[in-house]
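Holo prediction — L-homoserine.
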Amino acid sequence: MKPIQVGLLGIGTVGSGTFNVLKRNQQEIQGRAGRGIEITMVADLDVARAQSVVGPDVKVVNDARAVIANPDIDIVIELIGGYGIAKALVLEAIAAGKHVVTANKALLAVHGTEIFAAASAKGVMVAFEAAVAGGIPIIKALREGLTANRIQWIAGIINGTTNFILSEMRDKGLDFDVVLKEAQRLGYAEADPTFDIEGVDAAHKVTLMSAIAFGIPVQFDKAYVEGITKLGAADIKYAEQLGYRIKLLGITKRTAAGIELRVHPTLVPAKRLIANVEGAMNAVMAHGDAVGTTLYYGKGAGSEPTASAVIADLVDITRLHTADAAQRVPHLAFQPDAISNTPVVAMSEVVTSYYLRLRVADEAGVLAKVTGLLAEAGISIDAVLQREADEISGEAATQTDVIILTHDCVEAKMDAALAQMQALPTVLQPITRIRKEELA
Ligand code: NDP
Ligand code: HSE
């Protein structure tokens, strides 16, 4: 049978990996797909660079619409990124009856509802394994492997750049900016790295996992998003002393009130496997009622790891494109008429435990006042650590750091208690609050 023809839009980090892996492993991939898969046309703004990647036998153009208009192309891969031209091109490819593969989590987390509806109406597939956790086949696991389960929660390290930054800061004592530059050089970071460090990229990914796990629409606008830019080296050190590591986690949970959807730095017990995921590696924990807790680990970014997921989607489409549309796996795991309107709960309603760090005047009675306010608010304390005075030198010798771990309480209650503690004259700096999850 003639190979299935693929058009590639954007041949940068992931696009070049996709072209190279597909070429290198073509025989095995054909054996699995039952048919050859060939990238026969590429669009990129830099035609000369693209041509040097693909060689003289592949047609390269600078107009992506020429690829979509080519009647020989069956599948379009979008690897440009962003919400602008990428959205227009994906919708145009669908309208032209092409199946689409994309790694663009930003696009799907924000415009997924519109894109999946357009694809269903046209009877084409939109596959996005590479959009979440790079090379880890987490979409397949959630959508198919765990299909028997009522999923209870998912928690994941799903941004390689921030995990790389946190690991290097902890292990090597390197500065934030130095490590970020290295992540950019290695091709992990987004075109706009603020998406990585402010938690937006992780929120895009957890939004997609939440929709698949709980059968709700993709609702990025409902996610609570907090990045790592305000984390201090002191917090990484104190967390360590208390038996925890700080990770940027994407968390989504089913609760009686609705679905939690949040990204923030999180203290995780150092003994958990996920706490030991270092560098640009990703890991996702998913808990289902039947299977219990499962863990998926691997490279979450980079040229060939991400290409691995893109090509898995190409193989799936090649196997399924002649099947009746009703027999295919639904985009969001649930059939469109089974998607529910279960609400996403506001962050103020989330119940979790906390790490608090207060820089206070080193005077009698200060700790009692702080813990008294927590007690009045009905917030139970799990542990207290006071930094020894001799670790603070010079002017700061009259100050001390008090670190408090609490038991679970609702976020609104903690917000109110924090406001009261912050107003104490003996609390000298803004209080650091980091959420804590036991992931038991
Ligand atoms: P790159 O910036 O490396 O590649 C994008 C490519 O698209 C560039 O070659 C760019 O050309 C080209 N391009 C831009 N505009 C157009 C256009 N209008 N028509 C044709 N080509 C165009 O990005 P990545 O490969 O890193 O990322 C691609 C997608 O994959 C993004 O959605 C990203 O979020 C996602 N992703 C990336 C991962 C990674 O590890 N890098 C991992 C998982 C997902 P030029 O450079 O000349 O502007
Ligand atoms: N910028 C992303 C990361 C790429 O660092 O994880 C993978 O989606």
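READOUT: The radius of gyration is 24 Å.
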